[in-house]
Amino acid sequence: MDLYFSCSLTGGRQDQPLYAELVAHLQALGHHVLTAHLAATTVESADGELSPEAVFDRDTAWLRACDAVIAEVSTPSHGVGFEVAYALERGRPVLCLAKKGVRVSKMLTGIRQPGFKFCTYESAAGAIAHLEAFLARY
User: Fold this and answer.
1) CA–CA gap between residue 16 and residue 9 (Å, rounded)
2) Which of 4, 23, 32, 101 is 20 to 30 Å from 69 at the Cα level?
3) pTM of the predicted model, to two decimals?
4) What CATH number did the domain enclosing 94 receive?
């Protein structure tokens, strides 16, 4: 599957090691992660050269092209929220993952559209189990 991995960039990168682990696991399962670069420690310097318009055009094209979206939403991010809504409006399945006990916007936790799933996890293994179960449905 072509997957769009969404995570916080400007909101904070404290979960970058987890992002890298999730993306590596998705790739090991044979999925093509269109946004694998978002899990790298160097993403800010790589994307920093692009204009906001170029990032918007590139990322919305990837969202239209992907088969599903995996979003790690523990760190609040305007961009991630936009990407989730954009994908859902185009009928893409979306999985939102958040650390157990983290406060997440009710705009995300309240979504009831078909194809949307919100899960909490306590460890990277728990997050991986959720994404495997989600992807098995598609």
Assistant:
1) 9
2) 101
3) 0.93
4) 3.40.50.450
